[in-house]
Amino acid sequence: xxxxxxxxxxxxxxxxxxxxxxxxxxxxxxxxxxxxxxxxxxxxxxxxxxxxxxxxxxxxxxxxxxxxxxxxxxxxxxxxxxxxxxxxxxxxxxxxxxxxxxxxxxxxxxxxxxxxxxxxxxxxxxxxxxxxxxxxxxxxxxxxxxxxxxxxxxxxxxxxxxxxxxxxxxxxxxxxxxxxxxxxxxxxxxxxxxxxxxxxxxxxxxxxxxxxxxxxxxxxxxxxxxxxxxxxxxxxxxxxxxxxxxxxxxxxxxxxxxxxxxxx
Length: 264
Known about the structure:
Blueprint: H1 12-20, E1 46-49, E2 57-59, E3 72-74, H2 75-89, E4 91-98, E5 103-109, E6 115-120, E7 124-128, E8 131-136, E9 140-143, H3 151-167, H4 169-176, E10 181-187, E11 201-205, E12 209-211, E13 214-223, E14 229-238, E15 241-252
Antiparallel strand pairs: 1-2, 3-10, 4-5, 4-15, 5-6, 6-7, 7-8, 8-9, 10-11, 11-13, 12-13, 13-14, 14-15
Helix pairs in contact: 2-4
């Protein structure tokens, strides 16, 4: 089912998605550990403005994640922190590129309702609140409807549900936690020119990671000082198929472009 897992605003699930997109997709509703996915996004807990004077509020969940060279951080703490920082940012834009030649641009926001658009040469998806649409070649937009038996609608519903699962920040946190600890390698620039930050910290997992039976290798995560992602890359291997997927975050906060399929 080579139609869609890549375009979701999360980091570790994207690394899995590059492989699963060419294989049998997991059942809708399955989380990164095979359990049922949460039904709504995580809530960010914020405190007073950051002590460095920046506009970004301090994130309580990030207190245990110190971005300092050679520092070791818990995988669960790292996942909780990045997930909370994403929700606090409110919106974002990222580019997802895979070694199979596909590329998608993803716009997403959490407030007032969760919504997201995925735009690529092979796929277009919009999720808004409790519904979603997929544009199939030659058919236009097809709205998800779990009560429908129409094959196109069934496919659209499965894709929208998968997108919901993998875009939930709590699924992201579960993925990070599959490595008990991560190491902050040090301050390094992301290996792309258009990430929204040049001052970043490179983190790598200390133990092998497996998410939904997909073995992850060569995982690199570049975080801004406020714990938001700037770039992530890794290779996922499943059933002998390996795919490298990168995620470049080009914007955090601000306006995003999410079309309304009902107006087209």
